[in-house]
Fold this protein.
Amino acid sequence: RIRIDYIQPGKPQQNAYVERYNRTVRYDWLGQHLFENIEEVRDYATKWLWTYNNERPNMGIGGITPRQKLRTAA
């Protein structure tokens, strides 16, 4: 029951979560590094995404990391 809804051109607020993520990627690492090739970009992106999703403090769960949250739930 998943369907694709396209946003209107010039209306990024209709997809705020993706726009926020894209901004974070641009400012946190894409605009701060010069890469030699696409493999280097992919490797860096994979490492950054792991840190972003698992090791950085998340304000949505009280300013702790997801790993810490999992430990408190067990």
Q: What stands out?
A: The radius of gyration is 16 Å.
